C-alpha cells in the first residue's frame, strides 16, 4: 500500500433483515423451509456508492452452527465495531481484522462482501475484475430437492434438463439413493449428474455407497459427517466416484488438510461457509495448485448473494457448473434488478461496477422485517 492511498471510505452501515417466501419448499434433515430469513448488509460511502453483502445463515442450525440470530449478535456486537475502529485499504484486510472472532464465517462473509462490492464500485471495477476473474459467462447447474416420488423426480429433471442446465444435482439419503439413481439413469443415461448426501451416511455404509460407482456420477457431495475429513479419506480410497466436500471445508486450512489427506477430489466453495471472498479466492488458488477442481455452491441466496457467487465463479479454476440457478427458481420477485437469468445453462456476467445488479429498493422494502443503522 502506497502512503498516498486513502482507506475505503465508509460512512454508514445498514443491516436489513429480510423474510422472503420460497417459491418451492426446501426440505432438509431439519425439516421443510417455505421462507428464508436473512440479512442484507449495506455500506454507504456518503459519495453515492453503496456496497452490498448477504448472509446465507439459515434460521436454524442444521447446515452449520450459525443462524440468523447468531449472525445478528456477532455482526452487531463484534464485527461492525471492529470495522468501525480500523481503516481498511483493501477488502483482503477484512478477514484479518475479523480473525480474533472465532468462526462465525457467514456473519463475517456478509460484511466482507459489502466491503468488496463497495471497493469495486469506488474503483469502477466489476466485482469479477476486482477478484481477478476473466470469464464473461459462467456455466450453471441446478440442485433438485428430494421429491415425493421417483416419477415426480423424473419430471423435474426433464424440465430442468430441457432448460439447458449444465448439471443436475440430486439429494440422496438412506432409502432414497442407489435404486433412485438407477431409475434416473434409465431415461437419462448421459446427463451430467451428481448427488449431495448432506452427511447422511457413515463408513458403515461404505459397501452400499460403492454401488453408486456404476452410475458415472460427477461426484458424491459430503457423504459423511459435516466436520470430518479423516473418514472421508478412507471412503475416497474405497470408491471410484470423486468425493466433493462442502460442509467440512470452513477455511483454507481445512482445504489444505483435506487435500493432503486425500479426503476429496473436488471442493464446493461457498463464500459464506468459508468466511468471505478473500478466503474463497485463497481456497480456489490452493485447489488450482493441487489440481482439485472447484465449483460454487448455493445457499438459496437472494439476488445479492447470487451476484457474489457469479463474480466468484469467473475465476478460472471454477471448472464445474455451480448451484447458481436463476432468481425465478426461488423468488416471486428478487431484490435485484435485473434478476439473475439463466439461458441454456449459462449466466452472462454483468459488466457494471461491483456486483453489477441494482438493488430493487421497493422489493427490499417489501421483504424487510427489521433494520439497524450504524454510523462510522
Ligand atoms: O442454492 C441452491 O439452489 C442450492 C441449495 C443446496 O443444494 C444446498 C443448500 C444448503 C445445504 C444443502 O441442502 C445444499 C448443499 O449442501 O449444497
Ligand atoms: Mg452440499
Automatic annotation (TrEMBL):
This is o-succinylbenzoate synthase. Its cofactor is a divalent metal cation. Pathway: Quinol/quinone metabolism; 1,4-dihydroxy-2-naphthoate biosynthesis; 1,4-dihydroxy-2-naphthoate from chorismate: step 4/7; Quinol/quinone metabolism; menaquinone biosynthesis. Keywords: Lyase, Magnesium, Menaquinone biosynthesis, Metal-binding. It comes from the Bacteria. It catalyses: (1R,6R)-6-hydroxy-2-succinyl-cyclohexa-2,4-diene-1-carboxylate = 2-succinylbenzoate + H2O. Mg(2+) binds at residues 196, 221, 246. Its EC number is 4.2.1.113. Converts 2-succinyl-6-hydroxy-2,4-cyclohexadiene-1-carboxylate (SHCHC) to 2-succinylbenzoate (OSB). GO terms for molecular function: magnesium ion binding; O-succinylbenzoate synthase activity; racemase and epimerase activity. The active site is at residues 171, 270. Gene3D superfamilies: Enolase-like C-terminal domain, Enolase-like, N-terminal domain. Residues 150-242 form the Mandelate racemase/muconate lactonizing enzyme C-terminal domain.
Amino acid at each position: 500500500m502506497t502512503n498516498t492511498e486513502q482507506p475505503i471510505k465508509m460512512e454508514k452501515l445498514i443491516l436489513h433483515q429480510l423474510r422472503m417466501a420460497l417459491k418451492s419448499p426446501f426440505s432438509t434433515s431439519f425439516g421443510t423451509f417455505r421462507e428464508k430469513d436473512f440479512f442484507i448488509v449495506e455500506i454507504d460511502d456518503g459519495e453515492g456508492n453503496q456496497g452490498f453483502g448477504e448472509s446465507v445463515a439459515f434460521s436454524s442450525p442444521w447446515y452449520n452452527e450459525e443462524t440468523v440470530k447468531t449472525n445478528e449478535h456477532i455482526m452487531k456486537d463484534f464485527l461492525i465495531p471492529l470495522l468501525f475502529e480500523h481503516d481498511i485499504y483493501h477488502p483482503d484486510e477484512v478477514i484479518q481484522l475479523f480473525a480474533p472472532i472465532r468462526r462465525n464465517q457467514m456473519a463475517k462473509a456478509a460484511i466482507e462482501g459489502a466491503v468488496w462490492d463497495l471497493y469495486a464500485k469506488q474503483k469502477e471495477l466489476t466485482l469479477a475484475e476486482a477478484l481477478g476473474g476473466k470469464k464473461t459467462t459462467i456455466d450453471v447447474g441446478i440442485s433438485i430437492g428430494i421429491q415425493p416420488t421417483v416419477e415426480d423426480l423424473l419430471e423435474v429433471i426433464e424440465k430442468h434438463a430441457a432448460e439447458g442446465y449444465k448439471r443436475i444435482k440430486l439429494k440422496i439419503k438412506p432409502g432414497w439413493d442407489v435404486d433412485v439413481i438407477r431409475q434416473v439413469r434409465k431415461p437419462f443415461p448421459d446427463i451430467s449428474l451428481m448427488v449431495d448426501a448432506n452427511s447422511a451416511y457413515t463408513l458403515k455404509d461404505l459397501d452400499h455407497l460403492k454401488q453408486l460407482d456404476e452410475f458415472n456420477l460427477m461426484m458424491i457431495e459430503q457423504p459423511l459427517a459435516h466436520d470430518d475429513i479423516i473418514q472421508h479419506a478412507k471412503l475416497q480410497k474405497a470408491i471410484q466416484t470423486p468425493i466433493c466436500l462442502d460442509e467440512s471445508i470452513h477455511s483454507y486450512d481445512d482445504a489444505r488438510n483435506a487435500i493432503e489427506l486425500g479426503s476429496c477430489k473436488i471442493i464446493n466453495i461457498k463464500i459464506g461457509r468459508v468466511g468471505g471472498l478473500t478466503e474463497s479466492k485463497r481456497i480456489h488458488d490452493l485447489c488450482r495448485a493441487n489440481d482439485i477442481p472447484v465449483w460454487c455452491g448455493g445457499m438459496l441466496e437472494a439476488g445479492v448473494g447470487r451476484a457474489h457467487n457469479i463474480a466468484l465463479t469467473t475465476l478460472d479454476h471454477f471448472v464445474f457448473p455451480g448451484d447458481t440457478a436463476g432468481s425465478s427458481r426461488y423468488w416471486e420477485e428478487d431484490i435485484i434488478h435485473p434478476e439473475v437469468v439463466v439461458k441454456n445453462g449459462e449466466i452472462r456476467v454483468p459488466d457494471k461496477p461491483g456486483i453489477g445488479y441494482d438493488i430493487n429498493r421497493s422489493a427490499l422494502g417489501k421483504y424487510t422485517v427489521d433494520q439497524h443503522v450504524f454510523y462510522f
